[in-house]
Amino acid sequence: MSATAEGPARSAPRRKIDFHVLGPILALAALIVLGALINGNFLSYGNLSNVLSRSAFIGIIAVGMTFVITAGGLDLSVGSMAAFIAGLMILVMNAAMPATGTGLATVLIGMAAALAAGLAAGLLNGLLVTRAGIEPFIVTLGTMGVYRSLVTWMADGGTLSLDFDLRSFYGPVYYGTVAGISWPILVFAAVAVAGEIAMRRMPFGRHCAAIGASEKVARYSAVEVDRVRLATYAALGLLVGVATIMYVPRLGSASASTGLLWELEAIAAVIIGGTVLKGGSGRIWGTVVGVLILSLIGNILNLTDVVSPYLNGAIQGGIIILAVLMQRGSTARE
Amino acid sequence: MIAPVLSLQAVRRSFGGIEVLHGADLELRAGEVHALIGENGAGKSTTMKILGGYLPPSSGQVKLDGAPVRFAGHRGAEAAGVVMIHQEFNLAEPLSVEENIFLGRELRRGPFLDKRAMRAEARRLLAELDCPLDPCRRVADLSVSDKQMVEIAKALGREARVLIMDEPTAVLTRRETAVLLGLVARLRDRGTAILFTSHKLDEVAQVADRVTVLRDGAVVAAGPAADMTEDEMARAMVGRELSDLFPPKPPAPGAETVLSVEGLDVEGLAGPASFSLCRGEVLALAGLVGAGRTELMEGMMGLRAATGRIEVAGQALPRLSPGAARAAGIAYLTEDRKGRGLLLEKPLAENLTLLALGRFGRPFLDKAAEARALDEAIGLYDIRLRDRRMAAGQLSGGNQQKLLLAKVMLAEPQVVVIDEPTRGIDIGTKQQIYGLIAVLAASGRSVIVVSSELPEVIGLAHRVLVMRRGAIAGALEGGEIGEEAILRLAMGLDEGGRAA
Amino acid sequence: MNKLAYLGLAAALAAGPVLAQDDDTQVIGVSIPAATHGWAGGLNFHAQQTVERLEETYPQLDFVLATASGPAQQVNDIEDMVATRNIDALVVLPFESEPLTGPVAAVAERGTWVTVVDRGLSQEGIEDLYVAGDNAGFGRVSGQFFAGRLPEGGKIVVLRGIPTTIDNERVENFQAAIEGTGIEIIGMEHGNWNRDDAFTVMQDFLSRHPQIDAVWASDDDMAVGVLAAIRQSGREDIGFVLGGAGMKEMVKRVADGDAMVPADVTYPPGMIATAIEMTAVGLVSDAPVSGRFTIGSVLVTPENAAQFYYPDSPF
């Protein structure tokens, strides 16, 4: 017996709340209430702005990850890829500065390099998966190690730092605001909206879900399976580039520890949001909720002394499992 | 008369407020083969699942040895000796035959597996079935019929008193079917009570002692098999006279060649083959199982690595790929509707529009248009459903086939290839699908029917290509088309026939 | 598992004949953690530099440098060095004390010279030479600096490293040093010696506490994140941030008289260079090098900053 993938049947009355859809939202609401009770500053503009801005990197990546996972794939390399692109971007901008000066031109060159590198890295993952036919887990485990080593090598084991003057010019891309909303939040929102449209309203999203549900059926339905899967990896790479563009101006540096475990956070956010890890069904808005849940947990733990910081990981893990349990609970028994 | 081992009394069952079984009575007796027949969606599956403990009844009673019983799931039923064998086998493919037979009730010696005892017991069970299978072989490497034997051995190992078999012969060849039916007869003689379902009424007549006919969730006829002819069974199932299974043949095709295939070669599996198809023609591809018919068609569609030249209306396909085939107006309806045809967990509309999705998204998906397309398809192809938002997998087999046909036709193909159009489908739906094929041809489409059912081939086709060992062994046209002629070509008794 | 063992065997077979040493060539194995954060990056830099330099100076010495990403890998590295290179001396910076004690003791029992750097082993007397970092001193010097800068007391927040004995030792000594000064620690969280984590933790400290007089970031990488978060908030109440370890950018800011970074406390990754060099000298000469050698943590101030500034180091 398989569960109906979409919402409740129109004709059958439902008394129960549909946790499958509402689970993540309820968890988010509960966290917000909890945060507000624990600390009065939690709902302040400053705190919310901070939390949303720093969720943006994982968020932008997680949107791309949703497509990859929906199409039955996986990408473990995104954290290392982000570190590699950040390092590359810094090197490119530092190198270009003598020629192009401290200004827009240099930053644009850096951004172009980040997007190009992201696209290329994503294509590489995608081609290895589709053309060479290697499992995505193995391909991206491999590239994860490659990118992590490359950034360590580029930085000589230390830290790559953006030129100080360029840093202050580029800084507003992370710290600046439009109408009181910071740039990372705006970019994250734009990426999420575009992702939601592509997933729900465009053939691309439908094709991803079909491939994830059954690659054979998709192939027999003349879906260009390899091309779509390649596109999911390429899009994810590109979004890692976008995330890096938002990340670099924050601290102006990259090192071997940049983007550590981002891949797991992104995957966790996707799954908390209701996307199925084995593919076939994905929800972008769910992913956004998942990202917010993850960063709010960290924020709330930092705002309180109730639990030992040694237990932070346990609490995060517990909440992740709980959030997924809430949405699966209603379907698992069927 | 002996008392029944397992029986249903006035059993009803509802799903989500909709009753699908309206008070069914059924009695299974030791040493008796009981056939349960009915159209797709008549309630056979529900009845079997209630007997096998997979579903509890909404009301009414299940009685075991005369006493009311409520099975604790199928495990509870199995503990009581009631075992169900599903159409999709419940076997762990990577494990060996022996490991499967003892799965979940492994014999132990202390904390360790007692492999020697299990192997001996597996051998004994297989020998009892006259089945010379090596218990050490991997199930994944077995043929479908051997897998069925393993399922039965597994059931026997659980000391089954009641065996419930869901369409055991649907995917078997004739020879395999004969072996299976022989086995069923032997099990009956040993005193096992057997319930089985089948769409093949000749089998029912051959092996069943007692027949129960379901229609629309109610028992419409029941009694000793000897008292019912096949015609009477069919009439009871459908609820009307089935005068003619096949529609009148569509008008003779025009002279215009729509599809021309030259030197199509599917690496190592089929071909090289050349043939052509005219507008409005129904071409059947006949042959024995394994003759390479499906492989040839899949090669043409770009679903398998293949070479060759394919022209549609004079235009050569740039390459052999599913996308190119769709663009050229060739559509293929697979024989494996569950594995390759439909996304079973997805709603009907998403399945319907998947092949022709480009028409619904430029660039944004028009969900209203998708809903309209579903409405049209439901009307046009008479798809019967509970709820428009149900998942495709919840449709009965025949309705899945109609949905698949609707999906393929939505791409508005010039050439439709239908592989085994009526496999696992009841006789009423069969008749509908034959009618639809005739309408397609009459409206100027060209149809290729791949079929193992000779009456189907003979009843539908203008022309028949018979394949043997990957190559086209011969072509038959008009009056030449007949069961014997086809079989002679398929088995290599005739060389030639006519050139394709 | 079998495959790994096989590879190890293959490596041993391949290495054996080729590397069969002349009697006068001696091999020194160096095993350190991989460059996963800034300080370890500096460590790797200094180790590589020293090895290259010493290989030129002493042609009779051969070096094997292995970096490990975890204690288990480090144990494997050391076992491989013994099995395939037959090392005469081992310089090891243990990832963690407990799991490395047994394996290093086994090496010492073979008669191999053992130099332990920074983190001590859990059992005394195994090593011939111990070049120790001064974690207690690191915390104490930092605490004393706070006591001096905030004579009236004040409210501070503390960012801790990855939960380890090193971190505990530093924080305990810091707390001891500020005891009775009226300095109150109003928040303490782990920033894991990571810039991004420190940025996040500091942002949340700023949301939570309306008044913070100073920050002990306890590490220069974390100080970078902390400073960025403070600058973004635009808050004026924070008087200064004290990092630690002696990263070149931070030392430069101290030297330049940056008000937010008035000082730094050293914990030089260059201690590995000292250890390798002393071991080499011990092997090639009769100079007495055994014993315990502590590299103290000292306060870097604008006055003495120049002597702690290594512009070529990545750290």
Task: Characterise the protein shown here.
- The complex is a heterotrimer of chains A (334), B (500) and C (315).
- Chain A has 334 residues and is mainly alpha-helical.
- Chain A is built from 14 helices and four strands.
- In chain A, the strands form two sheets. Chain A has a two-stranded antiparallel sheet. Chain A has a two-stranded antiparallel sheet with strand order 2-3.
- Chain A is globular.
- By secondary structure, chain B is of the alpha/beta class.
- Helices cover 33% and strands 25% of the residues of chain B.
- Chain B has a six-stranded mixed beta sheet, sandwiched between helices. In chain B, strands 18-19-20-15-21-22 form a six-stranded mixed beta sheet, with helices on both faces. In chain B, strands 2-1-4-5 form a four-stranded antiparallel beta sheet, covered by helices on one side.
- In chain B, β1 (6-15) and β2 (18-28) form a beta hairpin.
- In chain B, 49% of the residues are buried.
- Chain C is of the alpha/beta class and 315 residues long.
- Chain C folds into two domains: 2-133 and 269-284, Response regulator (Rossmann fold); 135-265, Response regulator (Rossmann fold, 3-Layer(aba) Sandwich).
- Chain C has ten helices and twelve strands.
- Chains in contact: A-B, A-C.
- Chains A and B meet through α8, α9 and α10 of A and α10 and α11 of B.
